[in-house]
Structure formats: C-alpha cells, structure tokens
C-alpha cells in the first residue's frame, strides 16, 4: 500500500504544473507555492485504512525559457486500525526543459522517518521520439522507452489544450520517473467542461482574483501498468483535480484503490516570474 502511495504522489507532483513548451502555445503558467490539507475521502469505501491526515507542500519555479523546477513533499499519517499508525514522508524534485526533451528527477520515500526507497536519474528524448533514461545508482546501461511517449508536464499541456478546445479525452504513454525509474505508464485523462468563477465548493484560498478570473477544468487521470497486467485492466491509481489554465490545481483526489485522500487547498502564494521573452533577448 505504501509503495502505491509513493508512486501516485510522485506522479501527482508533476500534474500540479504545465509544460515548458507552453510559450509557443499561448498557455501562461504561474510560479507558485501551494499547501494542501489531506483527509480520508468519505465517498470512497475504504479498506485497511480507518483514518488519514496529512499535508502536501508544492512549489513550482521557472519559466518557459529556462524550464520549470517542481518540488513536492507529502507527509501522510495512516491509521490502519487497532492503534497501528504509519507515517509516510514522500519527497519529489523534478526539472523539465522548455522543449520537453530533457528531464531530471529525484524521489525519496521515508516510512516512520526511515528511508525506504530512493531513485534519481535523467531522461532525454532521441530524434526518433524514444526516451533514454539513466538512473543515478544503476550499474546497468541506460533504459530505452520507444515512442511515442510523453514527459509528465508535456502531457498536462495537452490536457489544458484539450480543455480549451472542448476535448474530453487524452490517452498517452507517460514516463515520470516513478516508482523506480524503470517503467512507463499508459494513461487515460478524462477532461470535463470548463468552469469559471467561484462555486460553493471552491476553497477560500482559491477565491482570489488571480484564480477566480481564470477558466478551470475538472480532470481525472488514470494510470495503468501495462507491463504487469494483461487483458482488461483496472487503474493502478487515479488522480483527480481541477486544473486552472495557469497550471494551478485545487480539489485534489488521490485514489489508491483501497482508499482515497482528498486534498483541500489551504494557501497559495504566487512568485514574481521573469517573462520568457526577456530571457530570449539576453
């Protein structure tokens, strides 16, 4: 269960922002820091988990010329009954360049303050669209994933584009470095119709002009492990969120199969961002 949690969280980190290729596509991103409070989702019939609480701290910096760095930390306390509690501390740091050709990642998973899993590496796109992945501590040679394959922020840009054009589905293979940097996932994104303004369920932290004036799209992304399952599949995990057109997310939902967590946006801070055009002139 903890391994599934870490895999999904590392992927979630990469869905809180959009791709660096947005400059040429008219999608403007906001560098920001967001804090989400986690709780057990009562709408999910949970097994093996009686209660849960936690927090996600997410920070994105950079611009479409320099690339974007994304740092995420999720601390979750799970109560599995009879006084058994497990604290998971998940940390992810990534960077993707402005052309979606180069990607760096480092993921760590601490259980009850003890490091259980760690992976770091790089990915680069070849001219034929395939992806070459080098793991930092691996004694083996690079891994090659045949195309077409997307990097995670590249995928989210396509989701934003689909939402803007009225599309509702996006299917793609994605490499995001989780859980061990050795696999790619088949994904299916379902995108709802655009929403604007503040509805009754919008968190107070999101009721600010910087967000209220923007379009947002309800998104559900299902991850399928094609390599380990055959025939009809159920998702290995599912991520849900409302995605603003500037890359900010609210109303998180992380479904791990046996249980699901809700993430309420508690605070958001926007950073001053150097325009991409200024960097191009230097």
Question: Overview of this structure, please?
Answer:
The protein is mainly beta and 282 residues long. The chain has one domain (2-281). Helix content is 13%, strand content 44%. The chain has helices at 2-13, 152-165, 209-212, 276-281; strands spanning 32-40, 51-63, 67-79, 85-96, 102-111, 114-125, 131-135, 143-145, 169-174, 185-191, 216-224, 237-244, 249-255, 260-270. The chain has a 14-stranded antiparallel beta sheet with strand order 8-7-6-5-4-3-2-1-14-13-12-11-10-9, covered by helices on one side. β12 (237-244) and β13 (249-255) form a beta hairpin. It is globular, with a radius of gyration of 18 Å. It starts with a helix and ends with a helix. 40% of the residues are buried. Mean pLDDT is 86; it is low at 16-24 and 278-282.
């Amino acid at each position: 269960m903890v391994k599934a949690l870490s895999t999904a969280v590392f992927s979630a980190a990469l869905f809180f922002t959009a791709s660096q290729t947005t400059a040429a596509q008219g999608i403007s991103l906001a560098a920001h820091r967001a804090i989400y409070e986690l709780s057990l989702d009562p709408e999910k019939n949970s097994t093996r988990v009686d209660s849960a609480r936690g927090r996600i701290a997410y920070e994105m910096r950079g611009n479409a010329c320099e690339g974007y760095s994304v740092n995420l930390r999720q601390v979750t306390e799970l109560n599995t009954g009879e006084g058994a509690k497990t604290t998971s501390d998940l940390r992810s740091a990534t960077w993707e360049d402005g052309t979606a050709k180069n990607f760096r990642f480092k993921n760590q998973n601490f259980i009850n303050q003890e490091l259980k899993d760690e992976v770091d590496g790089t990915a680069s796109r070849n001219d034929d669209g395939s992806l070459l992945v080098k793991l930092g501590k691996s004694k083996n040679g690079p891994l090659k994933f045949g195309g077409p394959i997307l990097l995670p922020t590249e995928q989210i840009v396509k989701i934003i584009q689909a939402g803007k054009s009225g599309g509702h589905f996006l299917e793609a293979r994605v490499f995001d470095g989780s859980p061990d940097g050795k696999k790619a996932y088949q994904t299916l994104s379902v995108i709802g119709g655009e929403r604007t303004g503040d509805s009754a369920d919008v968190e107070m932290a999101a009721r600010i002009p910087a967000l209220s004036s923007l379009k947002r799209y309800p998104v559900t992304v299902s991850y399928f492990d094609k390599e380990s399952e055959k025939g009809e599949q159920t998702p290995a995990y599912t991520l849900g969120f409302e995605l603003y057109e500037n890359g900010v997310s609210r109303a998180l939902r992380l479904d791990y199969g046996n249980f699901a967590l809700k993430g309420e946006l508690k605070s958001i801070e926007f950073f001053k961002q150097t325009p991409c055009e200024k960097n191009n002139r230097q």
